[in-house]
Amino acid sequence: MNHAETTLTPLAESPAPRPVKVYVLGSVVLLSAWWLVYDRLATVAHWLTYDLGGLTAGTHFASALEFFIYEVPKVLMLLTLVVFGVGIIRSFFTPERTRRILSGKRESVGNVLAALLGIVTPFCSCSAVPLFIGFVTTGVPLGVTFSFLISAPMVNEVALVLLFGLFGWKVAALYLGTGLVIAIFAGWVLGKLHLEKHVEEWVYVTKTGAAADEVAIDWPSRIDLGLEAVRDIVGRVWLYVLLGIAVGAGIHGYVPENFMASIMGKGAWWSVPLAVLIGVPMYSNAAGIIPIVQALLGKGAALGTVLAFMMSVIALSLPEAIILRKVLKPRLIATFFGIVALGIMFVGFLFNALL
Amino acid sequence: MKKLQILGTGCAKCQALTKNTEAAAKALGVPYELGKVTEIPAIMKFGVMSTPALVVDGVVKSQGRLLTPEQIKPLLA
Asked: Are A85 and A111 found together in one domain?
């Protein structure tokens, strides 16, 4: 990553405030430039493959190459734009604020709010433990906390951008909707089971200090936060996007049609639980897995099975279980994973049956 | 003497923040002592839910962000 070109203005000594006009104008110019490039990607990819590259249309290699040249910049451009936007939105939602909103909320209402806030609150699995303790020791019900912990990693902007870019808005919306429903219901069920005694004892005796005063944050700092998010997230996932799309392109070009139909097709009922079973221990990020899965869908895999697989890879992972083991006893972790896995399977069956 | 503390359980970002904080303090020439807080109950006492966090003289100045030395400097002044 190149830090030299992104040196940020110091936070405190803010320079003379730039007028709003500058920001509006700047955004319009940048967005138009973005759109001008984005809109032409397909044409350019076609031209590079067949005119400049001189490849014959219809060959396996040509279609794989065109797919790769088109999809990589498309997904990376979408990712940059959305991650920047989400970074700015997240500057309005700190974990402290989310905790204040959720604290003392009744279940059900709390579960819905927690799942929704999980999308917009900055969350990194490395702070899952302090966040968990901070929530449950200040009056956020356990089930509501779980709704947050399920939704925050599962419904994330990287997964949604890749789904939108490679599958279209309908699949992205399905993923968003069903992901929220799973987070809400799994959290609600976990709350009803009254599993508080399966939380490690030291958690409840931990004293959570009063949250630090929130520093008022101005627009230049919000834009800095957006840029930081781009540097951090896009810097971390671009390689996976590249590799995922390369493998996906290979599958598009070379794997025969209907190859996946017998394994991941609608006819095989056991494909959904199997997809979840394989998906849980897999710890790939969305950026690498979605392009591959998209290619499989084109080869006869059923959408429900594919959705279930993606959700289990993204939402449930062994590293997460190991991190949460610090605060949850094994039975609670198993129940947590079991209920979320059941919810994902239900979604898989539902879409295989409906579509 | 500034008392600087980095709160975090040892993730890569926490180590990077430690390095950047030292760089900022050295660049400013302020005398400082730097400590790491890695135990979760101790981190929770500060009311911090997202790591890494930077604490200056007992006051939480930033949390959940990997600040650059340039961003840290005004927090030490």
From this structure: no
